[in-house]
Each structure stands twice: as C-alpha cells, then as structure tokens.
Amino acid sequence: MSKFRPCIDLHNGKVKQIVGSSLSQNEKELKTNFISQKPAEWYAELYKKDGLKGGHIIMLGSGNEEAAIKALKAYPKGMQIGGGISSENAEKYLEAGAAAVIVTSYIFPNGKFSLENLKTLSSKIGKEHLVVDLSCYGAQNKWVVAINRWQTITDFQISKENLDMISEYCFEFLVHAAGVEGKQQGMDLELIKFLGANSPIPATYAGGANSLKDFETCDELSKGRVDLTIGSALDIFGGNLPYNECKKYK
C-alpha cells in the first residue's frame, strides 16, 4: 500500500507551502499558499509522535539551515533533507540527525547530468543515506528533470534506463511533478504509473494530491510501489485535507 510521507518546506527560515512553478529568483513572482506561525521543529515533533518515517525537509534557497537543523534534531533519523546538498555538506546534515540527504543540483552542474558527482557523493556517505531528487516537468508522457528551484530544465529525461543507472548509487527517488506542485488540482497520474512500472528502487511522488482517495489511486497505478507526499492540501498547512486521516497511511 502506498504510504503517506510528510514534508516540511522551508523558505527564508519559515515553513511555507509554495506553488512550485513560481519559485524563481524574483520574490515578487512567488505564489505562496501558506506561511506557518509554527517553527519547523513543531512539525518534526508531530511526525515523530505519529511515527511517520521517510518524510523530507526541503530548503528552498538560502536562510533555512538553522530551521532545518532544529527540525532534524527534533526527530533524529526520522527525516530526509534536501536543498543545496553536495559532497561538501552532506555529512554535516547526517550528523545533525538526517536519516538521508536528498541531492538535486549537485549532480546536474550547468544543467548537465554528472555521473561523477553522483558517484562521489554516494561513495562518501553510502548509497543507503542518499536519495536522488528527480523533480520534473512533463508532456506527452515524457518527463525532464528540473533543478534550481525547478527553474532550470536539464538534459536528463526520466527513462527506465536512467532510473536503472542512478539506482546503483542511491536507495530512493523523490519525484515532484513540478508543473502541478502546490496547485491541489490533481496528480500526474501517468508519472506515478511510469514510476511504479519502471523504478527499480522505492520512489516517493509529490504534486497535486488533494484527497484521501489519492492514496488509493497512487497505490493502484503504481501497484503499491510509490509512496505519496501531500503538502498544501493538508489542514496543518492551511488546506482542507485532515492530517489525522492521512497519517493512518503509514
């Protein structure tokens, strides 16, 4: 059964829910669904209390490290962390309490996939501590990875061959459907189906989920092989979907 994977998105040190496609260098273009009055560690403590594992903390830009570290320490070995992760800083976050680090831009320097960078990071911390973020934009059942807060389209397509190759160096994929992220207007069903059929390792999908039925849909389409992250739609992030119902899918 597809499981619920919680999240904490940090922007300028605060917990926020943002429309993914609006994340650019221009703050005026940012579309924010929710800004929490509670600190990041409050959410981490909640997930710990409810026994939810494998959730992720994403640092959207600079100014989030202090809040992220506090959240990691509130739930030791309970959450993954991503956003600016490289071979230089990955160990620091693991030592602070991260269960794993999530890598994106570091393995796509200048928008080009670098197997060398992936190997370097994986060998340094161990594949059991590494999640690769393959967040993407899609059209006609083809998906291309996007980095730098999803503003830079890379040359890397999500294909069975590419998933097989990368899976040798990590234990999980995190895949945001960037085009629908934060819009609560439905998931990329074809992407979930593709991941379920082609990912050789566990995968977590994020983007557009807005109902409890989405757990059943994700489970059915992926044959139980893809877990589901829900953010903006949750009542703890200003939405209408009860967190207390979602947490049962663990």
Number of strands: 14
State the name of the first-level CATH class: Alpha Beta
List the helices and strands in order.
EEEEHEHEHEHEEEEHEHEHEH
Rounded to an integer in angstroms, the radius of gyration calculated over CA atoms is 16 Å
Number of helical runs?
8
What is the rounded distance between the termini? 9 Å
CATH topology grouping: TIM Barrel
Number of domains: 1
Instruction: Name the CATH superfamily classification.
Output: Aldolase class I
Helix fraction, binned, reads 25-40%
The coarse silhouette is globular
**Shape-level CATH architecture:** Alpha-Beta Barrel
Sheet having the most strands? 11 strands, mixed
Structural class: alpha/beta
For the largest sheet, list the strands in their spatial order: 1-14-13-12-8-7-6-5-2-3-4
What does this structure look like?
- The protein is an alpha/beta fold and 250 residues long.
- The chain has a single domain, classed as Aldolase class I (TIM Barrel), CATH 3.20.20.
- It is 27% helix and 25% strand.
- It is built from eight helices and 14 strands.
- The protein has an eleven-stranded mixed sheet with strand order 1-14-13-12-8-7-6-5-2-3-4. Strands 9-10-11 form a three-stranded antiparallel sheet, with no helix packed on it.
- Strand 7, helix 4 and strand 8 form a beta-alpha-beta unit.
- The termini are close together.
- The model has no long low-confidence stretch (mean pLDDT 92).
